[in-house]
Write a structure and sequence with these properties.
Number of strands: 17
Shape: globular
Strand order of the largest sheet: 1-6-2-3-4-5
Strand content: 5-15%
Distance between the termini: 84 Å
Structural class: alpha+beta
Length: 506
């Protein structure tokens, strides 16, 4: 074994107020490090392990070595999966995880470039990679300690991967990273008001706003103004949502020049909140749900997610969630994508201040057949005593049970398509359609009949949007006439509305 000792290059001199560990390289030192790195890269074996002091000057010196970049640039001969020795990925993961835990700048700076360099071969169109194991180790570290820049960079890196198997594995870690990012209680509060959020994270901001339903306490007004309305990406979405002040007044923020005006559902200004602000929920006692639903339809506002027509649940809803048989394969696949973790025959997920646990029987990855959800329990934090749902905040309980329904409803539909009309999505669509078109069995036009909208001899499935006549699928010719706006994103609902508009004009 050869041992090479490499002293750091020229660094700035010690001075009062500058900790020794924070001393960086001078311009001359950066050039020295680069020249030495070029010499070493031609002589070091692929299996060489580099151990570096946490001092900034040492980190900068070692960074110049950047064997990943050397491989990509052809300075070091390429060999598939030889960029690291077999045991090195474990050290890479441990080092990155420790650095990210401590907020070390070098960790955040190194993670994405390393991932990008190790997951794509320097040879054009080659599907091999410099190191699969190290790529996975880096992705795992990012998923465990995500930040907005890391997730955005990781998304771009994964998109460039050509190796199909590795791409699939990295995509799973990316999903975990995105979920943990927006589920982090303070994600929105950490947004820099002046910073531009990458397009890759725009959807994450939407999910983080929706996660405010699960926040145990409202936001201070000044924080809400600075961090949500003050950030361009967040305010574009927040302006379409209804908010609640601590005095009970519900409002939407409207930009008037350089100022914000808070408008009620009747179009009159509300006094600016000075205490706290929370996301309006249909269960709030002071909420005029009917007026706000009329408002969003009248003003043709599409909210970033379903707020005003949102399904609500109570402790009495548990029985219906325990009733159906579930397809195991669908259940486990959906659970993984939604953030549930399988532990000892229980599916577990953190939702706001709660931990939700579902007893789903003896299931395991790869299992087939059917099962049931035998029990639903909520816990606060890491506590082991389950909570009395009837005694907890009804809004938080409703959101937790809605997440359960999102999982159970689709898993039941996989076995019995007839149940599709009873899922939360179908029920939400039925409420929107009824209000938009005044659908009733007594109306002369289209009306709701169970799981379908009937229009003459035509039937439109609320669950799937399929239009049929006597069971045979038919196509409704549509002519563009203005812009069709629905209150929240839903492709099926959009198709139904377009079809109904065409039928009403016919």
């Amino acid at each position: 074994m050869d041992l090479i000792l490499w002293r750091h290059a020229e660094a700035v001199l010690e001075r009062e107020g500058l900790p020794d560990l924070d001393r960086s390289l001078t311009s001359k030192g950066e050039r020295q490090a680069k020249r030495m790195a070029e010499w070493l890269n031609h002589r070091l074996a692929h299996s060489t392990r580099v151990i570096v002091s946490p001092a900034r000057r040492c980190q900068q010196t070692a960074k110049a070595l950047d064997r990943t970049r050397a491989i990509q640039e052809g300075a070091v001969p390429y060999a598939a999966d030889k960029a690291f020795a077999p045991d090195d990925p474990y050290a890479v993961h441990a080092a990155l995880r420790a650095g990210l835990d401590q907020g070390a700048p070098w960790a955040a700076e190194a993670a994405v470039p390393l991932l990008a360099g190790l997951s794509v071969a320097p040879l054009e169109k080659a599907n091999t990679v410099p190191s699969q194991s190290a790529s996975i180790a880096i992705a795992k570290a990012i998923a465990e300690r995500p930040s907005a820049p890391l997730v955005a960079g990781m998304k771009a890196a994964v998109a460039a991967v050509r190796h199909a198997g590795l791409k699939k594995k990295l995509a799973r870690f990316l999903t975990v990273a995105e979920r943990r990012l927006f589920e982090h209680d303070d994600f929105l509060l950490e947004l820099d008001p002046g910073a531009t959020i990458p397009k890759a994270l725009a959807g994450t901001v939407t999910r983080a706003l929706e996660a405010l339903f699960l926040r145990a306490s409202p936001l201070p007004f000044d924080v809400w103004m600075a961090r949500i309305l003050g950030n361009k990406t967040a305010r574009e979405r927040a302006a379409g949502l209804v908010w609640q002040s601590d005095c009970g007044a519900a409002f939407v923020p409207v930009r008037k020049g350089a100022h914000w005006v808070f408008m009620g559902s009747d179009g009159t200004p509300r006094a600016p909140a000075q205490g706290t602000v929370a996301l309006w929920h249909p269960l709030q006692q002071s909420a005029d749900a009917s007026a706000w639903r009329a408002w969003v339809l009248e003003h043709r506002v599409q909210q970033p997610f379903n707020q005003l027509f949102r399904e609500t649940y109570s402790s009495k809803s548990v029985a219906s969630l325990l009733a159906p048989e579930l397809d195991v394969k669908t259940l486990l696949g959906l659970a993984r994508s939604q953030g549930w973790v399988l532990r000892d025959e229980r599916l577990v997920r953190r939702l706001g201040p709660f931990r939700v646990e579902l007893d789903v029987g003896r299931v395991f990855p790869g299992a087939k057949g059917t099962t049931r959800c035998f029990s639903i329990h909520l816990f606060r934090g890491a506590e082991r005593k389950s909570l009395d749902l009837a005694a907890e905040d009804p809004e938080l309980v409703s959101e937790c049970l809605r997440a359960v329904d999102l999982l159970v409803g689709v898993s039941a539909f996989a076995l019995d398509p007839a149940r599709s009309a009873e899922t939360h999505s179908a029920r939400e669509r039925r409420a929107v359609l009824t209000r938009m078109f005044g659908l009733s069995s007594e109306s002369e036009g289209p009306f709701v009949d169970g799981h379908h909208v009937r229009a003459g001899n035509l039937s439109i499935s609320i669950a799937t949007g399929r239009v049929s006549r006597d069971g045979e699928e038919v196509e409704i010719p549509t002519v563009a006439s203005g812009v069709t706006v629905i209150p929240y994103p839903d492709d099926v609902l959009y198709g139904i509305v377009v079809a109904l508009n065409a039928l009403c004009r016919a």
